[in-house]
Specification:
By secondary structure, this protein is an alpha+beta fold. Helices cover 63% and strands 10% of the residues. The chain has a four-stranded antiparallel sheet with strand order 2-3-1-4, with helices on both faces.
Length: 284
């Protein structure tokens, strides 16, 4: 699915898992990059220690025959430098340990998110599966009602899908479903959602979308599916989809919205069958 940019806050954690969690990956990268700071401190400590040792072992040559006067003895200077190095190393070690623990926590969180993602995404089509549908839809309905904003649903069904499976086998059927899902993802925004509703049906959720915008999405899907079919025709079987568009009514339950979108999709499918039958009759 398109990236989750613009997703509502209540779903953000669930959308980061559709691929590596970008935020966590960035934090892990930043924590790892800070390890370069450790080398800077280490080099600084080594230089300071070397200077202190040189001032102790050969104070006259080190200070170039007393051209630079030092108010303290080389022995005291060496002790101060060693103390500075020890303090620096202590804080460096503590910071390194804190970073190591943070990195481990981030990696564990990322692993948990990845495991959770596997239960929300359909492995064949790489869109959300039905397990996530009601949580997602109810959240979007609540947001639309609260903000008095539009919410459009589009139910999508692949026409004559049983014929594809019967004639070309289930592997070809799976291929067609994956291609249709890819087309749907191409035709929507990053803030929209696609759910595999079941079998050859998909639900498209379009938040913040008026009728004009939703109609544009519907036309775009029909156009892109037709283009794909012209380039990838399966023998004599055309690939097309039936789309049912419905706009959420304020206060209406998710089940009612789904039923209305499904009803409109079946009306579109029936109209397609009638049109195809008429075309076949004229051809005879």
């Amino acid at each position: 699915m398109a990236e989750a940019k613009g997703k509502p806050a209540q779903h953000q954690d669930l959308f980061e898992r559709l691929g590596p969690d970008a935020r966590l990956q960035l934090e892990i990268s930043e924590v790892g990059s800070r390890n370069r700071d450790v080398w800077v401190i280490t080099i600084f400590a080594a230089v300071v220690l070397a200077l202190g040792a040189a001032s102790l072992i050969s104070p006259r040559s080190f200070w170039q025959s007393n051209e630079i006067e030092v108010a303290i003895s080389p022995q005291v200077l060496f002790i101060l430098m060693v103390a500075l190095v020890m303090v620096s190393l202590y804080f460096m070690r503590r910071e390194t340990e804190n970073r190591r623990l943070r990195l481990a926590n981030l990696e564990r969180t990322l692993a948990r998110n990845s495991e959770r993602s596997a239960g929300l995404v359909d492995s064949l089509t790489n869109v959300f599966n039905r397990n996530f549908l009601y949580e997602l839809l109810q959240g979007e309905i609540a947001r639309a009602d609260r903000n008095q904003r539009p919410l459009a649903l589009v139910m999508c069904d692949v026409n004559h899908f049983k014929r594809i499976n019967d004639r070309y086998g289930h592997l070809m059927g799976d291929y067609v479903l994956a291609q249709v899902a890819a087309i749907l993802k191409y035709c929507v925004r990053g803030s929209d959602y696609i759910v595999r509703y079941g079998g050859d049906e998909f639900l498209i959720i379009l938040p913040e979308t008026e009728d004009t915008g939703a109609q544009i999405v519907v036309r775009r899907i029909h156009q892109k599916v037709a283009e794909w079919d012209r380039e990838n025709r399966l023998g004599e079987l055309p690939i097309s989809v039936s789309l049912g568009l419905y706009h959420h009514a304020p206060g209406q339950a998710a089940e009612k919205d789904l039923a209305e979108a499904d009803s409109r999709m079946y009306q579109a499918k029936q109209a397609t069958h009638i049109s195809e039958a008429a075309s076949e009759s004229r051809a005879k």
